[in-house]
Every structure is written in structure tokens, then in C-alpha cells.
Amino acid sequence: MTEILYLIAAVCFILALQKLSSAETSRAGNLCGIFGMAFACLAVYMSIDVSEIWFILTAVAIGGSIGIFIAKKVSMTALPQMVAGFHSLVGLAAVLIAFSACFAPALFNISGENGIFTSSLIEMGLGSAIGAITFTGSFVAFLKLQGTYKSNYIPLSVNTCIAASIVALLVYFICTESVPAFIILTVLSLIFGATLIVPIGGADMPVIVSMLNSYSGWAASGIGFTLQNDLLIITGALVGASGAILSYIMCKGMNRSLPDVIFTAGTPASAAKSSSEAKPFKQGAAEDAAFILKNASSVIIVPGYGMAISQAQHALKELGDILKKNGTTVRYAIHPVAGRMPGHMNVLLAEANVPYEDVFELDEINRDFATCDVAYVVGANDVTNPAAKNDPSSPIYGMPILEVEKARTVLFLKRSMGTGYAGIDNELFYEQNTMMLLGDAKKMTEAIIKAM
Ligand code: NAP
Q1: Environment class of residue 350 by beta-carbon count within 10 Å: exposed (0-12), middle (13-18) or buried (19+)?
Q2: Domains (ranges, CATH) in the chain?
Q3: What would the pLDDT profile of 93-141 be if each residue is shown by its tens digit?
Q4: Pocket mutation for ligand 1, best pick of 144, 251, 382, 444 (most atoms within 8 Å of C-beta)
């Protein structure tokens, strides 16, 4: 019965992933995930002694309450940190289970007359190493995304030495079953998780968060073998594989490769250039923007991190509706790394009930900027920066961008002439066809609506 329930749960999780890949079916995907989790829990309750259920229910009540508290309290802009924090806990869980198994193998049915089975030693060693890297790596990612810690240079040779020592200790542990080797292996992996992520910064963070997501999945899968839990193996593999695929897709979106992202982090970061000389630019008021928008027959809205900060999505939807009533074609263009996590902009626009059919990915809409009247850029900066195409010394060089500069008029909503996440100036602000609308994105959009 337990195996059948696990199988149903695994199918639910696979369906959940499949449905979560499109905005229209994502709610159904979430439901599939919830059902899968319910079947998984049911299977656990059925397979244990009734007297033990209270331990589990108490743990579920404590964990669930903390989960509800965090989910209600966390702001939309802090979601990436929250995801990194949760990954960190998955890594820690994997380390703790591997330690339990190492110290009490008989309880886990992983030992015979000749000691712990070799396959279990491999699973435990790998599970603990990957779990420890995930734990500290995600924790550093959390601190960076929270803004409490900035990148620091760590020579690649240091990381190479630590990685080589981890591999050597892993082999030694598998061959000798040495507990001290297991402990040192885990401590070195904890250090490696931090030293691997510390130098990575700027535009590479999204890839790192998704890579850590993948690690947490593989760690869970490894531990699934130790616990002989088929469902944990399958779910861990699903998380591991989907995280790896997402990392690959994002790297492709930024015209980078995964080794490039991880290994060039070991070289001193190219100093982010932000020009200190004051250059002339055109500044407009809400009334000017309203006039331009009223006369536009097609408008493409480009949301970025600033939209999330100011929570301008509802005002944007209202502006979009007014423009549509005026006969204007309104579309939204989403860059794969706009905001601070994959899908950040899609979630916010969906929250404001922006129709899915109005939302387009970079590849689908980029060539339409050349024929549109207005590109309305709301708190986006790096994802529109032409330096990614024109300046080989730029830290974002090679990243595909939304080509808003090709629109007849570009309206930029932001609070100042300051830089974005990558810390570099944007030449577009000083172009002839650009009008800067300086102010909070939500307040400025509301003022434009009023003026219209
Ligand atoms: P961005 O380059 O960080 O620019 C955001 C802009 O929003 C800033 O220039 C800021 O300018 C403006 N802003 C902030 N608060 C605002 C407010 N209340 N009202 C109006 N404007 C406001 O953002 P992006 O263009 O979305 O690019 C994303 C960047 O983040 C990329 O470099 C990407 O690689 C990186 N990143 C992405 C992810 C991901 O998964 N999506 C994760 C981590 C990092 P002012 O201060 O002048 O207002």
C-alpha cells in the first residue's frame, strides 16, 4: 500500500512540474503538488506505529506554523532570499540524516557482517558533501540577496584545492569507513559551499540560486537511497534535474555557460563602471508621458526589479486597461532574468490579473520594439542596457537584452539616474528618444493615469 501511495505521489509531482511550466495551468500544477504531498504523508502515517504518529504530527504542526508565518510575512521582493533560505534547510537536513546513518547504521538497515554496505557509504558521503555545500552556499546566497553581504575575491586555486581534498576524503571514507574522514569531509564541504558562492555576484546570482536548488534536490535524492525511500529518490531527482535545466536555460539567456559562471567567479570581478560625469538627459513629467501614451497606437511595457519594489503592477494593469480602451495595443515584455528570481515579473503581473496572452518572453517580442511607438520601462535597467551588445568590457556583455532603444519613444520610470543590479551606467538614459520619468514607479504611473 505504501509503495502504491508513493507511486501516486510521484506521478502527482511529475504532473505538478509539467503544469507549473505554463502560467495558465500553474494553479492546477500547485494542486497536483499538494495532492502528491498529501499522498506522501498518508503513506508515511500508514507505515509507522500509531504511537509514533504524534511525533510526526507535532513536527508537521511546528514546521507548518513556521511555514505559514514566513509565507504571510515575507514581501514579494524578498522571495529570492526566502527560496535560498529554504534550500539551505534542505541541505542541512541531508547532512543530519547522513550523520545519523553513519553513527547508527543498523537502525537504517545499511550494514551487514562486514560493516556498512559500500553503496550506502557512497550515498552517505555524497549526500553529506552535497548537503553541506548546499547548506552554506544557500546561506551565503541568502545574505547576498538580503544585501547584508557583498562579494569577495577568493582565488580559484583555493577552491580547486578544497574540491580536490573533498574528493580524496570521499574516496578514503568509502574505502575505509573512517568516521573522522566523514566528519572532515563534511566540514570541508561546509567551507567549500561558502567559498564557492562568496566570489559570485552581480548578474550571475539567479543562476547560482537555481544551481543550489538543483544541489538540494540531488542531496535529497542521495539521502533517499540511504533511507531506502523511493519517493525521496524520485522527488530529489525531479528537483535536481529541473534546477539543473533551469540553470542551463538561464545561462543560455545570459549567453554564458555554467562552468563560466562558476569558475570566472574566482577571478577579481571586473570593476563595475558607473560614469561619474553628469551627462545631459531629457526629463519629463507625468503629463508629458500621458500625452505621448494617448497618441501611441502600440505600447510595450517592460517591467523590472523597480516594479517589484514599488508594487506598481496594479497601477500598470489599470494604465494598460485605459490605453486599450483608447484603442492602443498593449503588451508586456519579460526578460528571463528581470527582477531577482526566475518568473519574478510573471508572478507579479499575474497577481494584478494581467491577461497571460498579453505577456511575452524576450524571443517572442524583441523584434516588435522596432515597430512600437512607446517602450514603457518600469524599474528595469540592466535588462535593457545596450552595453550588453556593444561593450565587450561590460560585466553583462553577451547577455541578450530587450531592445527597447528601437522603439520610437522610450519612457524610463525610475527614482534616479542610478545603476541597477550589475552596477553599470545605462547609455540609453541619455539617448534622444528617451524620456526619464524620475520618481517611484507606482506613484508615477498613478500620476500618469490621473493626467490621462
Ligand atoms: P535592475 O537592473 O536591478 O534595475 C532596477 C532599477 O529599478 C534600478 O535601476 C532602480 O533605479 C529602479 N528602482 C528601484 N526601486 C524603484 C522604485 N520604487 N520605483 C522605480 N524604480 C525603482 O533590474 P532589472 O532590469 O530587472 O535587471 C535584473 C538584474 O538583476 C539583472 O542584472 C539580473 O542579472 C539580476 N538578477 C536577476 C535575478 C533573477 O533571477 N531574475 C536574480 C538575481 C539578480 P533607481 O534606484 O534609480 O530607482
Answers
A1: middle
A2: 1-73 (no CATH), 79-269 (no CATH), 286-451 (3.40.50.1220)
A3: 989 999 999 999 988 888 888 888 898 899 899 989 999 999 999 999 8
A4: 382
